[in-house]
Amino acid sequence: MSADAILKEPPPGARPDWTIDQAWERYSDAEHQVWITLYERQTALLPGRAADPFLKGLDALDLHRTGIPDFARINEELMRLTGWTVVAVPGLAPDEVFFDHLANRRFPAGQFIRKPDELDYLQEPDVFHDVFGHVPMLTDPTFADYMAAYGEGGRRALGMGHLHNLARLYWYTVEFGLMQSAEGLRIYGAGIVSSHAESLFALDDPSPNRLGFDLERVMRTPYRIDDFQQAYFVIPGLQTLLDVTTQTDFAPLYARLAHAKDIPIAEIEPSDPVFTLGTQAYARAGGRTGKAA
Ligand code: HBI
Ligand code: FE
What we know:
Elements lengths: L28 H17 L6 H10 L9 H12 L2 E5 L5 H9 L2 E5 L16 H8 L6 H20 L2 H13 L2 E4 L2 E4 L2 H4 L2 H9 L4 E4 L2 H5 L11 E5 L2 H10 L2 H10 L14 E3 L4 H4 L9
The protein binds 7,8-dihydrobiopterin and fe (iii) ion.
């Protein structure tokens, strides 16, 4: 998401915490149909690709095949399971607003849905990216605790001028994370699981690197906001995420990061556990837009 997409003041009609009413009854049939099209396409693809906690969350919340879910309805079950609720926002919120919501177990979800002609790619998170992509994982107690701890950490990182390092942690876990399972690598990142093309690319394509997750390494690694990732990081399980937030002393880590150089996005470090040594053929061929990386 580009920085200029994030407004500085709440948009007209939004409350100071950026939230708006979902106004579920105002969605048109055409908007519900976009959800149904995306939902049917992803749920046909994801068994055997998405991690178990994601598939379990999809079932637990009974996200509708019949259209955009009413947040008030899914919040009853979500609150019971992990104390989280989904709140509607008109678009990207400033980091400090975003982190404050996460720290209070409120997930800000875009109220709008993409147009039928932008099914495959959109710059800003819409209700399908946020509610289909992110919310099922919030039914898992370990992941739910991680996301709340991330919000706390985000507020601290903001104060210490290290937000960009923490944003990379979010990007390579919450948005584009992969997990090991007995049957092989599985997707838990919302940015992948809500995208048909990247749900295939992230697991099957020989182009990207797939590397073992390490907190400091990820915090030194830039990411793509405009195309498939050139590197994906693999965790052994969700407990790893919670452990790094609860067991890391971030002050010395940020002090080291202040003097550490970024690791070029397609590079593999000698210390990296390598699941896939990628060819980078996709990025070199110009990726989504055909322009060489
Ligand atoms: N705001 N509504 C919304 N949704 C996001 O995913 C989001 C945001 N603001 C900031 C942000 N994400 C990222 O910059 C943080 O992950 C760092
Ligand atoms: Fe997201």
